[in-house]
Design brief:
This protein has 285 residues and is α/β, with parallel strands linked by helices. Helix content is 36%, strand content 22%. Bound molecules: adenosine-5'-triphosphate (ATP) and magnesium ion. Adenosine-5'-triphosphate binds at residues 52, 58, 76, 78-84, 127, 238.
Length: 285
Amino acid sequence: MEAGDVSEMDLSYGSGSGEAEGKGKSELRTLLERDPSRAETVIEFRDVHLAFSREREVLAGVDLTVRRGETKIILGGSGEGKSTILRLALGLIQPTRGSIRLFGEEITTLDEAQLKPIRHRVGMVFQGGALFDSLTVAENVGFCPMENHGMTLEQAEPLIRRRLKYVGLSDAYDLMPSELSGGMAKRAAVARAMICSPEVLLFDEPTTGIDPIGVRRLLRLINRLRDDFEVTSVVVTHILKDARFIGDSLLVLRAGHIVFDGTFDELMATKDPFLRDFIAEQEGI
Ligand SMILES: Nc1ncnc2c1ncn2[C@@H]1O[C@H](COP(=O)(O)OP(=O)(O)OP(=O)(O)O)[C@@H](O)[C@H]1O
Ligand SMILES: [Mg+2]
């Protein structure tokens, strides 16, 4: 694609300025709350297995469905395979067997070139935030329009500034990542993931390593993305308290299987001994 083919507007969520905050609950949200099964499926795993070695399957038959407009939380202990699920959903790694559909399309049989346009509809906030240390915040946030749409930094600047404003980092344009606090770096990573207006955002442990105020701010940001732009989110975490603020529904991953799929309240009411222990180990619930 030639530089300039994509106008700033084409990369914006919705119509008009798009950035109006607090648009309130969308029709999609209301539909989801009344009857979740009517919303379109955007991510679907069926009987997904993955083994990195012959001794152990990390995922041993995972089924999951993420519908448009919902925020799905994936909970589980360290090493249970949460990040692996996100990498599979992006087609970065292939399952040993099973089906993975993204926007209705089976991605396990696609090559890199075929995957690219589908991947562009998904934004990822990697574990740890992972900004490029040698680039400014603006260059980090503008990565997608510059790399995928051939824009120059000057062309992308208005879009970068709007995204920085949205995440509460208006003054960070010229800063280096090392000048940001942990929470600010996470929000810059969100701005980078959302800049090309993806329909789906994947967050890997977005609240790890930041203070409680930063956590609250980030969780609110995830909620706003859903309410303002109908973004579908998958949020991986090992902190149940986070799930309470944002999740429409939760999955708990353990020993390669989804051992719980339901709402926060349903999880709280569970009598399953493993899940009761998992809840008991969490602080401040
Ligand atoms: N590329 C790889 N090669 C070999 N083993 C891997 C690879 N990636 C992940 N694993 C293994 O798969 C398992 C799941 O890893 P994963 O990173 O998905 O866990 P996680 O639930 O995200 O953990 P954490 O909460 O610590 O981030 C771990 O045992 C890990 O060692
Ligand atoms: Mg992980």
